């Protein structure tokens, strides 16, 4: 019995790393990997929509690394937490945004909150993988 | 999306869905939690906006 439990725990721990990695790369992918389809699709839809709408509202996706402007650094980290969509949007030329746009700050807020929510989703994927949550 | 209210509603809806999926396990509890979170977002924004109304700049 103890040995079976140890094997199950080991398997769960083994699933935790890829689940967290997938969850970080694409919102909801970690839960899809773990077979939690409803949760995965909900995260993919909601966080994906937050990011897409943010980009459509002219959000700035510039990468700011360094502590000369700590708030810009934290903002940039929050956006980077979206994983692949963030880097794809940058690669497709949506990096600069449009500072003069009326919805620029809304766009920034949408993309930053999407990234921060994705961090919570990664932690949730870990909890699901190790059996702490369903 | 130029309407502030529409942006508020869309934002509140999407964030409420994520919170509900993260913090509640069964479907009924999720729907109730999402509706409560959505209401709290919209209501608090309207109340704060109303309180700031006398100070436009």
Number of helices of chain A: 6
N-to-C order of helices and strands of chain A: HHHHHH
DSSP strand tally of chain B: 0
Helix content of chain B: over 70%
| Distance between the amino and carboxyl termini of chain B | 23 Å
What coarse outline of chain A follows from CA principal-axis ratios? elongated
Outline the structure in words.
The complex is a heterodimer of chains A (134) and B (57). Chain A starts with a helix and ends in a 5-residue tail after the last helix. Chain A is elongated and about 60 Å long. The longest helix of chain A has 26 residues, at 104-129. With 134 residues, chain A is mainly alpha-helical. In chain A, helix 1 (2-25) runs antiparallel to helix 6 (104-129), helix 3 (37-56) runs antiparallel to helix 6 (104-129) and helix 4 (70-80) packs across helix 6. Chain A is 70% helix and 0% strand. Chain A has one domain (2-129). Chain B has helices at residues 4-23, 27-52. Chain B is elongated and about 45 Å long. With 57 residues, chain B is an all-alpha fold. Chain B has 2 helices and no strands. Chain B has one domain (4-52). Chain A binds chain B through residues 38-39, 42-43, 45-47, 49-50, 53, 57, 102-103, 106, 109-110, 113, 117, 120-121, 124, 133-134, and chain B through 1-2, 7, 10-11, 14-15, 17-18, 21-22, 25.
Provide a concise account of the structure shown.
Chain A has 134 residues and is an all-alpha fold.
Topology:
The complex is a heterodimer of chains A (134) and B (57).
Chain A: H1 2-25, H2 29-33, H3 37-56, H4 70-80, H5 84-91, H6 104-129
Helix pairs in contact in A: 1-6, 3-6, 4-6
Chain B: H1 4-23, H2 27-52
Helix pairs in contact in B: 1-2
